[in-house]
Amino acid sequence: MTVTDPKTTLHQYLQSAREAVVWKLEGLSEYDTRRPLVPSGTNLLGLVKHLGYVELGYFGETFGRPSGIPSPWFDTEAEDNVDMWATSDEAREEIVGRYRKAWVHADATIEALDLIATGRVPWWGPGGEVTLHQILVHVTTETHRHAGHADVVRELIDGRAGFASDDSNMPEHDESWWEAYRDNVEQDARRAGG
């Protein structure tokens, strides 16, 4: 990444996180993209679905630029966490497509406004005034946080880990090295735990 203006830099980091999250779905069955692997129900396709609504809301309604795509966030009858999992009648292509549409809508907002442009986050209640800079940082941080969740979930599914298909950002070792490494970490944890 080259040194650029702050808005471009933030936008580049947001885009890299977006791509990492979508890449985590690559090569998986429908079941594996949807199955919860931790007690909170976190699942890969649910993370993509959630992040699509995050971008539509924060870069849409917040700045008076609604996308026209309905969001469960504004449906008072919606089930809790409905944006965090994909129902059996929601196609993967539909969810990923909506996320990519959210990127286009968000990118248009980012392009159109200065970092000091103000908006209001309605779901934050009174005092939800923000700037584009704050929202870019907020959404980029949230997307990277969920990319980390996706890393762990994907590794639990099939052992595949890393940042991107062409750049794992991890040491290149075989399975036996990683087993020995994990065992070493486990041994130290046990010693530290008494």
CATH class: Mainly Alpha
Quickly count the domains: 1
Beta-strand percent range: under 5%
Task: Report on the biggest sheet.
Answer: 2 strands, antiparallel
Helix fraction bin: 40-55%
Q: Topology as H/E string?
A: HHHHEEHH
How would you briefly describe this protein structure?
The protein is mostly helical and 194 residues long. It has helices at residues 6-23, 30-34, 44-58, 92-112, 132-158, 175-192; strands at residues 118-120, 129-131. The chain has one domain: Up-down Bundle (Four Helix Bundle (Hemerythrin (Met), subunit A)).
Q: What does this entry look like structurally?
A:
With 194 residues, the protein is mostly helical. The chain has a single domain (6-192), classed as dinb family like domain (Four Helix Bundle (Hemerythrin (Met), subunit A)), CATH 1.20.120.450. Helices cover 54% and strands 3% of the residues. It is built from 6 helices and 2 strands. The protein has a two-stranded antiparallel ribbon. A hairpin with an 8-residue loop joins strand 1 and strand 2 (129-131). Helix 1 (6-23) packs parallel to helix 5, helix 3 (44-58) runs parallel beside helix 4 (92-112) and helix 3 (44-58) runs antiparallel to helix 5.
Reconstruct the topology from this structure.
Layout: H1 6-23, H2 30-34, H3 44-58, H4 92-112, E1 118-120, E2 129-131, H5 132-158, H6 175-192
Antiparallel strand pairs: 1-2
